[in-house]
Design goal:
Distance between the termini: 39 Å
Shape: globular
Structural class: alpha+beta
Number of strands: 7
Largest sheet: 5 strands, antiparallel
Order of helices and strands: EHEEEEEEHHHHHHHHH
Number of domains: 2
Strand content: 5-15%
């Protein structure tokens, strides 16, 4: 499979503090990153995310989650008992906030973040209903608990967990599903054009009708081709705001580069996905 990740690098609302770990080369076309609790496990000492001497504001601070086009398996277990469980987060198209409970964390967390075009290569079911979904891992990955989840509490470091996850993912990767050239060509076109592509462009690049593309995207990604392109465009705008390139020096350059009709159009579109204006989002990211 061509490594589409070379064309696209989605980021979070606070990209410099994301604590992401890149997978092995064989998985990079499919897995955006791993993330979770760091450090060795020793009783209830579960690393820097859960030190009880943090001030209350650090324990209760809300974190903004923005649409990054990725999907995550998040697995957690009690440090003391090893009781484990987790959930799968599908692709989302709205921003929301999450926060700590205000008490010291006693759970260890490990997560696998998939690129949106690759989840169907590992899942057991279609992805028609994953938009803004958060539910049991077993609904889409029936053997996850047996093959990986129940083994994670036996690990002591994030490195050990990543190694176990990579072994699981390489074994699960369904090569037979990679032959859907129409879908992958459409995704390549969207990524290559940074989300600035019309339906006619997708049809000409794939030889498929708009109805066929709609069916494929909803079955294998969970959203329409247009929504996919909109989210990819948003992510590219956000990346250029956070990490400006020599070709884009101001907001007007973004308006032109990403096909917006005017600055207000860009601001309104951006705020729909980020929950903030571009300047407010940058201020949040730098906190």
């Amino acid at each position: 499979m061509y490594n589409l990740a070379k064309l696209y690098y989605p980021i979070t609302a606070r990209p410099d503090g994301a604590g992401e770990f890149i997978p092995c080369k064989a998985l990079q076309p499919y897995i955006r990153c791993f993330w979770g609790t760091t450090g060795e496990m020793d009783g209830l000492n579960v690393g820097p995310e859960a030190q009880p001497d943090q001030p209350p504001s650090a324990l209760t601070r809300l974190e903004m989650i923005i649409p990054d086009t990725c999907m995550d398996i998040i697995w957690e277990w009690e440090a003391a008992s090893g009781a484990a469980g987790g959930f799968f987060c599908g692709i989302n198209d709205t921003p929301f906030e999450v926060g700590a409970s205000g008490t010291p964390e006693t759970k260890i967390r490990f997560a696998i973040r998939f690129h949106f075009w690759a989840v169907h290569l590992f899942a057991d079911d279609h992805l028609k209903d994953v938009l803004n979904f958060s539910g049991e891992v077993e609904q889409y990955f029936r053997s996850f608990r047996r093959e990986l989840g129940d083994r994670l509490p036996e690990t002591r470091t994030l490195g050990e967990r990543i190694a176990a996850a990579e072994h699981y993912l390489l074994r699960r990767l369904d090569q037979s599903r990679m032959s859907n050239n129409g879908l992958m060509n459409a995704i390549h076109t969207i990524l290559h054009h940074k989300g600035v592509v019309a339906a006619s462009g997708l049809e000409s690049s794939t030889g498929l009708s708009s109805r066929q593309l709609e069916r494929l995207f909803r079955e294998y990604i969970g959203i329409s081709p247009k929504k996919t392109a909109d989210l990819v465009r948003f992510q590219n705008v956000w990346l250029n705001l956070c990490r400006p390139s020599p070709h884009i020096r101001n907001v007007q350059d973004l308006v032109y580069a990403f096909g917006y009709s005017h600055q207000s159009h860009l601001n309104n579109s951006f705020k729909r996905y980020a929950g903030r204006t571009p300047l407010e989002a940058l201020a949040y990211a730098r906190q």
